[in-house]
Amino acid sequence: MNWKRLLLLATLLAGMLLAGCEKSPNLTPLPADAVILAFGDSLTYGTGAVGDESYPAALSRLLQREVVNAGVPGEVSAAGLARLPELLEEYRPALVILCHGGNDFLRRLDKEKLAGNLRQMAGLAREAGAEVVLVGVPQLGLLLSTDPLYAEVAEELRLPYEGEVLSDLLSDREFKSDQIHPNARGYAVMAEKIAEVIREAGGL
Questions:
Q1: Which conformational region is residue 103 in: left (phi greater than 0), alpha (psi within -120 to 50 degrees), or beta?
Q2: Domains defined along the chain, listed by start
Q3: Which residue blocks in 23-93 are alpha helix, DSSP H?
């Protein structure tokens, strides 16, 4: 094998390694006094559990960081988009965990608009100096599965992403309080999976 072929192979290998790195978005390590904003609807609020059993409360214990529960039951993504700027200004979070869209599915609202709202929410968070982790939400159907739009938005915006935990939890009666909400055990698992994403992305 001559040197030109070796150089070509080395160049191709370097390109493949670079592409692989680009598929794994990273987070800046969170300082001990960092504020994390958990933003979403009833899945963030903790419907189906009580007191400190929501996933933001469990996540705060796991990460030893302040996690603000900014979940509003029944909220659609357009309303979330309108609500987010005030919270970003109030809390100045280092990280936003974005888990939104379930009520858009329940009301059969336009998925493209949902995707656009998620993009805009992520953009607002970044403009405010926060990084973003996206959590996918199951779509309506006989078999629960996360709508592909979440993975597409995560890939497009290079966001650390958890796309399986909610569909897994809501497929198992042991971890759900009703058809669309986890129970306390489910929210604990949700927190563990999100913490894992944060750690793997270098946030801790």
A1: alpha
A2: 33-200 (3.40.50.1110)
A3: 42-45, 55-63, 77-91
Give the pLDDT of the chain (204 residues) as one tens digit per residue.
Answer: 454 444 444 444 544 444 444 557 999 999 999 999 999 999 999 999 998 999 999 999 999 999 999 999 999 999 999 999 999 999 999 999 999 999 999 999 999 999 999 999 999 999 999 999 999 999 877 678 999 999 999 999 999 999 999 999 999 999 999 999 999 999 999 999 999 999 999 999
Helix (H) or strand (E) holding 39: strand 35-40
Query: Are residues 173 and 167 in contact, defined by beta-carbon separation less than 8 angstroms?
Result: no
Residue type, 30: L
Q: Is 178 left (phi over 0), alpha (psi -120 to 50) or beta?
A: beta
Residue 157, token pair as written in the block: 């915006």
Q: How far apart are CA 130 and CA 99, in angstroms?
A: 15
pTM across the whole model: 0.88
